[in-house]
Write a structure and sequence with these properties.
mainly beta; 5-stranded antiparallel beta sheet; globular; single chain
């Protein structure tokens, strides 16, 4: 195979790994990491300069959206289906709950970083509600 014609990448580790960058965009993979364990979710992030695309390719995952106000007062769970494209709009608070075998492809601007992203801590009530729904989701049909 002519490697100047194609680049093949894969990532089987844990967490987030950028795999391909080209021009203004990058493709990364998100795999399970302890920070995303349902018991550890206590915040959401948002990107102030770009949308972010999520595509579940394996396992189970649920996006948790927190709106686009300055603070998070409620959340909306979105169960991901394998192969569907989920475009999280700019300035939308979000996090993800995922099974330990989940594999998510992320497409985003190549310059997405801490300087154009924000984090918001969840209050204890929201955090607990997310944990309850996330546990129900991850343990259904198992």
């Amino acid at each position: 195979m002519k490697t100047e014609l194609i680049e093949i990448k894969n990532y089987n580790g844990f967490g987030y790994q950028s795999l391909v960058s080209h021009g203004a965009w990058r493709v990364a993979v998100l795999r399970y990491l302890d920070e995303l364990n349902i018991e550890n979710i206590n915040s959401m992030e948002r990107h102030t300069a770009t949308d972010e695309v999520f595509i579940l390719t394996f396992g189970k995952a649920m996006l948790i959206l927190g709106g686009n106000d300055t603070q998070i007062s409620e959340f909306q769970p979105v169960t991901m289906n394998i192969g569907e494209i989920y475009n999280i709009k700019k300035n939308t608070w979000h996090t993800v709950i995922m099974s330990k075998d989940a594999h998510i492809v992320i497409v985003e601007n190549d310059d997405t970083n801490k300087e154009n992203s924000e984090t918001c801590l969840l209050n204890e009530i929201l955090s607990r509600e997310i944990q309850v729904q996330g546990n129900q989701f991850l343990h259904q049909n198992t």
